[in-house]
What we know:
about 210 residues; about 40% helix
Amino acid sequence: MPLNCICSSDSNSLNTVLWQSRISLLLIALLFSLANSKANAQDSSLFHRTYHSKGKLDSPTLVLVLHGDSPFGNPSYQYTIARTIANENQNVVAVGVLRPGYTDDEGNSSEGERGNTTGDNYTPEVMKAIHYLTSILKEYHHPSNVLLVGHSGGAAISANLISTDGATYQGAVLVSCPCDLKEWRKHMKGQQPNTNIWDIKVDSLSPI
């Protein structure tokens, strides 16, 4: 049985064929690498939506928007805020982040534990998931700085992130932050005296 081979009596022709084959393989490898790079930009367990300001982006400011605990509904307002930030500013990439364990009003979800919305979701695991998404976004957009915008529980998480990793996060806007977690939970227990849910021990970090 004859062997499948590249055959030529001219050594120069054979070398040309071999080099062409090598170049083709290198191009295929390069295209595969670029495709993977683009795919990895969304390689996170957290669902998020990204909005860009108009005009050219040059080392933009990266803004992550984190919603609150949202005990009575599926949060989606973080996308609206991120879109507004991008529309009203220049050289900005704004990202609305769906926190771990949550589902938005369109059925998109993020991996992780949502908890009981009692301040029990401000854990090191949650911070790690958000920080991982931040690292992916930084690699993809090459921002000059990273800012956090957090509401309620999202503000507590933002405060924890900026306090533990100021090298990554250069600033934060905290809205209605339960930053003294112990006192906030004590207050909420007073508002809901007929339930013991606020007595359950939590592993959350208190920003204060």
